[in-house]
Amino acid sequence: MLIEIEDVSYTYLAGSEAANSAVSNASLTIDRGEFIALIGPTGSGKSTLAQVLAGLLKPSFGKVIYEGSDIWEEPKLLAKRRSLTGLVFQEPEKQLFEMTVEEDIAFWPKNLGLGPKEITTRAMSALSAVGLDYEQYKDRSPFTLSGGEMRRVAIAGILVMNPKVLIVDEPTVGLDHRGRTGLMDKIQKLNQGGTAIVFVSHDMDTVAEYAQRVVLINEGSIIQDSSPREVFRNKEMLNKVGLDVPVATEIGARLREVGYHIAPGPISVSELETGILATRGEIKR
Amino acid sequence: MSINLSAASFSYLLPKGRVIKAIQPTTLSIQPGEFVAVIGANGSGKSTLAKLLNGLLLPTNGEVLIDGHNTKDADNKVFARRRVGLVFQNPDNQLTATIVEDDVAFGPENLGLPPEEIRARVDRALKTVGMTEHKDEDPHNLSAGQRQKIAVAGILAMEPKYLVMDEPTSMLDPVGRRAILETLSELRQKSSIGIVYITHIIEETVEADRILVMTEGKIIANGPPREILTDESLMESASLYMTRPTDLARRLAKQGIPVSKDIITVEEVVKELCSLK
Ligand SMILES: Nc1ncnc2c1ncn2[C@@H]1O[C@H](COP(=O)(O)OP(=O)(O)O)[C@@H](O)[C@H]1O
Ligand SMILES: Nc1ncnc2c1ncn2[C@@H]1O[C@H](COP(=O)(O)OP(=O)(O)O)[C@@H](O)[C@H]1O
Ligand SMILES: [Mg+2]
Ligand SMILES: [Mg+2]
Predict the structure, then answer these.
(1) Are A43 and B142 in contact (CB under 8 A)?
(2) Of A33, A62, A242, A244, which alpha carbon lies 20 to 30 A from A101's?
(3) DSSP 3-state assignment of A211?
């Protein structure tokens, strides 16, 4: 098991009047090569849980275990263990701060004491993994890049650490269609190469398209952890917590209501298309 | 009464004399009571256009008139900000106070409204975006989506005559997003507010009166949703996507099922297939 969290709770401003319990009693495991979507309404604790998973927030209670060892038990080993995961924050543009793309990407490896040659090799491969050409981008200032490019540089700055688990917090917000599909395809490629992915999102259609497993959080508690198909079966519950089903699921359900005998729960348009075509006999020409 | 751009263009001036032409000369009018959606790729000039509409940026060439008042005239600055409320793409550019309700009250207070009126507007706006229970908190301690809701509430509370919203639902969950859109549609029924709504979520534009499509600082199309959203080559060239109902209808039509290719909503696709049953 790459990551296990056991009965984790996190409270902001603990002890003060404004104490705010953002995550409570969450347990979760992440295995090699998984593609997990973390979904939940606005303010449900997704970003907090993402930071706990990444070892950046110390839980108020509970354990965070990486490959069998409790990362908060021995603070000295924390930095080293933490490199198992990489978190791309929500609005990662805010993380970019160096003068050039190359310096920005080299920041953490330098901090770990890696040599310049090793850093360059890694930077090249990290940039190419997100679809950016090293020579073309290395000397650009991150602040002159488009939203989609900045997002990719921020991800490269995390990939350069070779994490086994990549956590991306709402990575497609603000990107146009091309930027969004380009980025998601890159993330999927990384996953196919063996990196486990935790994808935080509000976009049910994208979740349906890419995730193999969906973790649903509401008011700080994990209330479901199963396949996308299973999660999207329960529209009423999803609506109640502020979420929805994918468009294809919605159309499929409506068609069943009016008497079409299509298989329940399609989650993509192509699946729905197949389902409708299978009922050709029921359709007037 | 309307917002009018006449041959208005905008260029950003960068160090070393570099110039970015963000908006090409554009002529455009936004009427009260209209809901105008704006779509286009990243960098196509949407946010720059938004800032021209409320006078936050002044056109490099050409004119922007807000109900007859030229934004270039320094005396019109306050008038412009009151008449045209702008919700920024990044809510953090807008949040100022350390308590949510003070933040929402900031705009109405600047309008010099009586305290009871301010109170009522703040309460209403917070309720609209579903943030009443967070009214005493510090916005900086809220999640990103919650901060976005506060930014929207702050502008709603000013009850401007024109509302320009730059990707106002990008960080919201589906129900929160729907709540904002429903609020806008109620506002339109109750008052003659003119709304300019920028988004990457094409599904949010299907009920607009018209859609503007931008590429490289130009408005390359301006028309009703059905005309724009079903124009495959236009959408493709502007780096946009067809809504899933449109996509489905086209796939089915290709397979010989007689559904209209001009479908843009879930309701329409269900209705058509229903009538074929
Ligand atoms: N820095 C902070 N200080 C205090 N409370 C916070 C902070 N960040 C988030 N919270 C609170 O924690 C809860 C969960 O927030 P978050 O994890 O950001 O949610 P999500 O990512 O699901 O929108 C919210 O109620 C939010 O107000
Ligand atoms: N403050 C700025 N300084 C320099 N260039 C900018 C600035 N803001 C935007 N631009 C440039 O202007 C063009 C249009 O940007 P913008 O209006 O933000 O587009 P959109 O909102 O459609 O993504 C882009 O090329 C962008 O890089
Ligand atoms: Mg978040
Ligand atoms: Mg913009």
Answers:
(1) yes
(2) A33
(3) coil
Chain A nearest C-alpha distance from B71 (Å): 28
Q: How many CB atoms lie within 10 A of CB B124?
A: 15
**Distance, CA B240 to ligand 3 centroid (Å)?**
26
In the 8-state DSSP scheme, what is residue A227? -
Helices A116-129 and A147-159: crossing angle in degrees, nearest 10, is 130
Longest Cα–Cα distance of chain B, Å, equals 66
Could you read off the pLDDT of A85-111 as tens digits, one per residue? Answer: 999 988 777 777 778 999 999 998 998
ipTM of the complex: 0.91
> Is A47 near ligand 1, meaning CB less than 6 Å away?
yes
CA of B46 to the centre of ligand 2 (A): 8
Over residues B91-111, the pLDDT tens digits come to 888 888 999 999 999 999 988
Exposure class string for B222-260: b at 16+ Cβ within 10 A, else e = eeebbebbbbeebbeebbbbbbbbbbbbbbbeeeebebe
- Write down the domain spans for chain B: 3-225
Give the DSSP letter string of B204-266. Answer: GGTT-SEEEEEETTEEEEEE-HHHHHT-HHHHHHTT----HHHHHHHHHHHTT----TT--SH
Measured between CB atoms, does B18 come within 8 Å of chain A? Answer: no
User: Domain B3-225 class?
Assistant: alpha beta
Q: Compute the distance between CA of residue B25 and CA of residue A254 in angstroms, rounded to an integer.
A: 46
Helix A101-111 and helix A116-129, axial crossing angle in degrees, nearest 10: 120
Contact A277 B252 (CB under 8 A): yes
- Min Cα separation B270/chain A (Å): 6
Q: For an interface test with B, which of A17, A88, A176 has the most B Cβ atoms less than 10 Å from its Cβ?
A: A176
pLDDT in tens, B126-147: 999 999 999 999 999 999 999 9
Task: Answer whether A250's CB lies under 8 Å from B266's CB.
Answer: yes
pTM: 0.94
- Helices B244-254 and A269-277, axial angle in degrees (round to 10): 40
The kind and range of the H/E element at B46 are: helix B46-53
Substitution candidate for ligand 1 out of B92, B143, B148 with most atoms within 8 A of CB: B143
Reported confidence tier of residue A129, pLDDT bands at 50, 70, 90: confident
**Four-residue CA torsion sign, A253, A258, A262, A263:** positive
Q: Which ligand is nearest to the CA of A169?
A: 3
Q: Is A13 a pocket residue for ligand 1 (Cβ < 6 Å)?
A: yes
* CA dihedral for A161, A162, A166, A168, sign (positive or negative): positive
